[in-house]
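for the writeup, i need someone to sanity check this before i put it in the appendix. the sequnce is what the collaborator sent (i think, or maybe the updated version? ugh). structure was predicted straight from it, no edits. if anything looks off just tell me and ill rerun, i have time this weekend
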Amino acid sequence: MPREPSVHLPTPITWNPNPNHHMAPLPPTPPTGSGISWVTLPDGTRTLAYTHPTPTMAAPATAPPAAVPAWAKTTALLAPTIGGGVGAAGIGISYAAPGVLAMAEALWALIALIAAGTLAPLLLRTGRATGGRGGAPVQHVTQHITASGMFGRASGTLNNR
């Protein structure tokens, strides 16, 4: 298999199109893909030089933006709704606060009334240790007093039943 000849350029090869200048024969075209090409210098001299390859491909187009996920749309729509509801609830509570405080006072009064109605009979039953149902018999005392005159002596009788 034959080997391709390699290009070795120890000194730059130049060519000047000026007719008064010594004309050198054009060297062969450099191999493609080697990074070597003809370059024109500012004084008009053409020379072989290493160059950066020019991109032949167009710049990649930017990808279209991805669609917004459904959960993000739902969250975005619910956030102001929930915020507005919480704000409206706060305003309603601020307007209702005086009424709620008055109702709390009324409920405490009702609780006190229920407690008094429930505890009063119990306290009255335990207060009669000597009489009433289940206690000692009740004694009835009847007294008749009579007196004659303004400074007369009084007399009377006691009846125990």
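The chain has one helix and five strands. The two ends are 154 Å apart (CA to CA).
thx in advance!!
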